[in-house]
């Protein structure tokens, strides 16, 4: 990690990897989001210098012309918007898709974790999508932040769904525990040792297994250095708060999608979350892990597409005289 007064290290493979390809029809755009105050000229000792804006949005217009529906894709800790590239290649039809590069990306602003509340960055991304975020697809750490933001807004008596234009949720590999007693000491001491392994898996999956194992490990360690102990503590703090999450109030349509071989989080946590949300169901994909939207892009896209179709059918059934044949009555 670079410190105050020290020149930043030359770019590594990790730092150049997030710009690998532009999908056909994708238009990278910086959305009109509110920007954070400019960083101090000298970074505090122990914090890496930030690269780029804290929140960048990229629009991927619908291939078949203008679309009324939108979808916002939010990456996890240490990843970037490019983690959705394979899903974009198999995207559901008729949607304007937006991807967000968030401060906790692998090459993001190293000072984001100074603020104990990471949800403000998420709110910035949501507010940056013109017309509302639509269906929010949030992976891992961003799923934690999405639930925390919605819970906080509801606790304050506000309507976050109307405020941010959220119609539905797709929570991918979410962390969630019902009771504080489930966080025993053995579980918590295991996470620091496994964190590097999780980052290495993400790099392996994103690269298609084409990297030399030593390079892969070096890149994973660089990600861990970039996130640092403060960023890791932000994850742990968010995870530890899930037993107090009032999931029963988050009453919009939701699908929770997990990988059966996830080494980061037990799929049982996703099942419990889906059971605690008022309007949710769970899908567990076999033979894939924490980065299932890359490992099983077509299958993941089919799950999202089925979910969207079910929402359309539900909307039709709620309009008398406008139901499709075979749709259930309201």
How does this structure look, described?
- The chain has 330 residues and is α/β, with parallel strands linked by helices.
- The chain has ten helices and seven strands.
- The chain has helices at 13-16, 85-89, 119-127, 141-155, 160-164, 185-207, 213-240, 267-276, 292-295, 297-317; strands at 56-60, 69-74, 95-101, 134-139, 166-172, 254-259, 280-285.
- Strand 2 (69-74), helix 2 (85-89) and strand 3 form a beta-alpha-beta unit.
- Helix 3 crosses helix 4 (141-155).
- It is globular and about 50 Å long.
- The chain starts with 12 loop residues before the first helix and ends in a 13-residue tail after the last helix.
- The relative contact order is 0.13.
- Residues 1-51 and 320-330 have low confidence and may be disordered.
State the helical fraction. Answer: 25-40%
Compute the gyration radius: what is it? 20 Å
Strand order of the largest sheet: 1-3-2-4-5-6-7
Beta-strand portion reads 5-15%
- Main sheet? 7 strands, mixed
**N- to C-terminal distance:** 57 Å
> Helix and strand succession?
HEEHEHEHHEHHEHEHH
* Poorly predicted runs: 1-51, 320-330
Shape summary: globular
- Count every beta strand, where a strand is a DSSP E run of 2 or more residues: 7
What is the average per-residue confidence, as pLDDT, rounded to a whole number?
81
Count of individual helical segments: 10
What class, by secondary structure content?
alpha/beta
């Amino acid at each position: 990690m670079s410190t105050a007064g020290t020149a930043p290290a030359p770019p590594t493979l990790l730092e150049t990897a997030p710009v690998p390809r532009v999908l056909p029809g994708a238009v990278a755009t910086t959305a009109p989001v509110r920007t954070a105050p400019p960083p101090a000229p000298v970074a505090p000792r122990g914090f890496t210098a930030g690269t780029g804006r804290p929140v960048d949005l990229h629009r991927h217009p619908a291939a078949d012309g203008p679309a009324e529906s939108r979808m916002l894709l939010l990456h996890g800790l240490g990843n970037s918007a490019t983690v959705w590239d394979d899903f974009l290649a198999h995207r559901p039809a008729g949607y304007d898709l937006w991807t967000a590069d968030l401060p906790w990306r692998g090459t993001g602003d190293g000072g984001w974790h100074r603020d104990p509340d990471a949800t403000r960055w998420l709110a910035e991304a949501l507010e940056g999508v013109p017309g509302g975020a639509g269906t929010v697809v949030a992976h891992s750490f961003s799923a934690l932040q999405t639930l925390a933001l919605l819970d906080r807004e509801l606790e304050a008596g506000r309507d976050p769904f109307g405020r941010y234009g959220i119609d539905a949720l797709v929570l991918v590999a979410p962390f969630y525990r019902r009771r504080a007693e489930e966080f025993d000491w053995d579980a918590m001491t295991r996470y620091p040792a496994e964190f590097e392994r999780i980052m290495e898996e993400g790099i392996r999956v994103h690269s298609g297994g084409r990297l030399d194992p030593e390079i892969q490990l070096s890149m994973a360690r660089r990600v861990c250095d970039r996130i640092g102990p403060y960023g890791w503590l932000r994850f742990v703090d968010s995870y530890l708060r899930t037993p107090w999450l009032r999931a029963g109030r988050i009453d919009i349509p939701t699908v929770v999608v997990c990988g059966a071989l996830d080494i980061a989080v037990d799929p049982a946590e996703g099942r419990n979350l889906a059971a605690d949300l008022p309007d949710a169901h769970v899908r567990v994909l076999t033979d894939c892990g924490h980065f299932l939207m890359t490992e099983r892009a077509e299958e993941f896209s089919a799950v999202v597409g089925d979910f969207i179709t079910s929402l359309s059918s539900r909307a039709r059934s709620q309009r008398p005289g406008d139901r499709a044949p075979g749709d259930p009555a309201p």
